[in-house]
Structure prediction request, 391 residues.
Amino acid sequence: MEKLELIAPCHFGLEAVLKREITDLGYEIAEVTDGKVSFYGDWAAVCYANVFLRTAERILVKAGSFHAETFEDLFQGTRAIPWEELIPKDGRFWVAKATSVKSRLFSPRDIQSIMKKAMVDRMGMKYQLSHFPESGPDYPVRVTILKDEVTVGIDTTGTSLHKRGYRLLTAKAPISETLAAALIMLTPWKKDRILVDPFCGSGTFPIEAAMMAAGIAPGMNREFLAEQWENLIPKKAWYDAVDDASSRIDDTIETDIQGYDIDGEVVRAARENARNAGVDHLIHFQQRPVSELRHPKKYGFVITNPPYGERLEDRKALPALYREIGQAFRGLDSWSEYIITSYEDAERYIGKKADKNRKIYNGMIKTYFYQYIGPKPPAKRPAAGQGGREK
Prediction:
């Protein structure tokens, strides 16, 4: 069994959530750094990570790492990586993305060009080829240089993991599926608790919650780049991961997950997305403004992504909107409320300081995850004939 180091990038600020996911899958953590978690596994782990991880953006196989202060260092370090063990002679390979932070080498285009030349030089010598047909599967390389330390990985995912395949219709400024899943996992919400999103948009929060509740793996209905890597991963490994995912699904459960939006067209789009995800029967969508947010039951959760007001004309409406949010919260006195927004006056107009506030980068936008933590529901009494308390 070959031991690999795999790299899973994620949103900045959510590394702990991804680390827990990887540990729950049974893999050993190698390192946690800003925006990524590295872990050990075999080639089957590539399949499992792509199919099961909800909060990773993609899965890379680490090809190598080295120190480089000059382009000659970069060339020689790249050339020393045993590319022939990963990429077949007909493989299509290129440096798809180069990122440099606080390093002497900072030009992405030059980094990409020099690394490609080094790869060709190494593989040409090993395969005794002067020209590569590149007619086979894709092996895109991604490189990050941080303080002159170069980390090189081959992307196994292709289209980012936030593309689950269910969101065919989107509202304005939708939250990504991976970020929505991570935020839900930062809360104590469980499938037997109420969850309401009063600004549901495309339905991402309710759909991700319903998929978690039903045990539906996020990647089981899409394709991955490395499925074509038959020189490294047998097809059976992918079938086994998907079969395992299928065996864990229980979509007969009862849930109380609701999504509201003031726009009827948006609500219809959310319903269609939920249908594509196979969870439409687990979610109640309704056209309703936040001013009508109410629920007869206690101890529920609001998890939502209200408008940020990124455009100047939209910002004028934010104070009134966030006052409405605060008023609605006051009517849900036993509930917990979680809001992600870039609006820095959110607490002021909601009228209450959050119990916790977590800074999270949503792409290039700095956002805040305001957490208003309500009381826990009373412990359930044991059934007749059973001792002890529910844990």
